[in-house]
């Protein structure tokens, strides 16, 4: 698997998903030992009292590999936030809940 972190500025380019997908598929056709290419992006958004960090991703699996054909090599899941469930925002410390 190959992981590629892309800059968030690339998302402003027209057809950026298609362009990256075409590049990955062409590369994987030539390299059957590569099972998947994962593009990911970390987007930070700030507001008055919060910083939000989101993970964006695009996963492409190789159709024909040395390890089997037509296998789904996806590993990212929608519900995964990238942080352990027991973490709390620092602004909630020490009570464990939001205060305003």
Write the layout of secondary structure elements.
Elements (H helix, E strand, L loop, with lengths): L1 E4 L10 H15 L5 E11 L4 E11 L2 E2 L2 E2 L31
Parallel strand pairs: 1-2
Antiparallel strand pairs: 2-3, 4-5
Question: How many domains would you count in the coordinates?
Answer: 1
Shape label = elongated
Mean pLDDT: 84
Assign the structural class, choosing from mainly alpha, mainly beta, alpha/beta, alpha+beta, or little secondary structure.
alpha+beta
Helix content: 10-25%
Largest sheet: 3 strands, mixed
Low-pLDDT runs of 5+ residues are none
Strand content: 25-35%
User: Termini separation (Å)?
Assistant: 44 Å
> How many strands?
5
Strands side by side in the biggest sheet? 1-2-3
H-E order: EHEEEE
Number of helices: 1
CA radius of gyration = 18 Å
Summarize the structure.
It is built from 1 helix and 5 strands, in the order βαββββ.
What can you see in these coordinates?
The chain is of the alpha+beta class and 100 residues long. Helix content is 15%, strand content 30%. The protein is built from one helix and five strands. The strands form two sheets. A three-stranded mixed beta sheet has the order 1-2-3. The protein has a two-stranded antiparallel ribbon with strand order 4-5.
Question: What descriptive keywords fit this protein?
Answer:
single chain, 100 residues, alpha+beta, 3-stranded mixed β-sheet, two-stranded antiparallel sheet
């Amino acid at each position: 698997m190959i992981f590629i972190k892309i800059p968030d500025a690339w998302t402003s380019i027209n057809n950026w998903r298609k362009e990256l997908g075409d590049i990955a598929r062409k590369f994987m056709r030539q390299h059957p030992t590569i099972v998947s290419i994962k593009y990911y992006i970390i987007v930070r958004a700030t507001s008055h009292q919060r910083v939000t960090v989101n993970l964006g991703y695009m996963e492409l699996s190789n159709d024909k590999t040395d390890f089997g054909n037509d296998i789904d090599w996806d590993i990212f899941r929608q519900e995964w936030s990238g942080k352990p469930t027991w973490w709390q925002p620092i602004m909630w410390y020490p009570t464990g809940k939001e205060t305003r």
